[in-house]
Amino acid sequence: MKRGAALFFLLFLGACAAPPKRPLPSAGAPPAAELAARVPAFARTPYEPFSRAAAVAIAKAEWRAFYQPVVLPHTPLQNDEEREEGLWQLVGLYWWLGLDPGTADSRFTGKHDAEGHVFPRNEDGDYAWSAAFISFVMRLAGAGSKFPYSATHSDYINAARFHKLGEDPGIAITSERPERYAPRRGDLICHWRGRVRVTYDDLPTAHRFPGHCDIVVGKKPGLLDVIGGNVEDAVAMKEVPVTADGRLAHRDGEVVDPDHPWFVVIRVLYEE
After folding, report:
1. What's the pTM?
2. Residue 27 placed within a domain
């Protein structure tokens, strides 16, 4: 994601050594009363099992609300949709429902800061909502307390790797190498951003780093259809090239996609 990239870059420079003892996202569970006041009962209880069908359907519904944009490599979208009437409010819902109570970020919208003031377009990167979107999808799909909701992708990337190492079994995500695992619908694929390269073997990192994750919503020969938030200021779809057997990288680790440095797959452990 774009938010605070400069800060994350500075933090990351001195922080690729030993992993932390606990995953970064956890600051304790939010008070039950605050969570109950914010999260609808069907997602809080939840009413239905946490399912990949639900996660994919929710992501697609939000994509349709943003007029179904499909982003092509090196071809920016023409409209700043996150500021449009009816859509800046949707982005506000991603912040409000995706994040836990008590965070200033949860009061953002597609064009307002935590005090309700319209922020300048040149500060857009400080309010990037791609991780809030993923958190929103997971929350409404019924992940409950098993997903580390965050405004920063690296928080749940690191948490997934902790689970792989067996240190945080209470979450419904685990990490997979892109050359060894073919993503399924409902899984998340992630790439690093910024100037500092991040590899699977760097995980879990000691500090946050700039990145982005999309949710896989469809598969076809040689391609994945993925949807992400804050992609060209919209909920947008893109096609990601993969190997013949559906992996993001060849067995030697070379990523198939020339445009995005995918380095980890988050396998979501749905209940059905």
Report:
1. 0.87
2. no
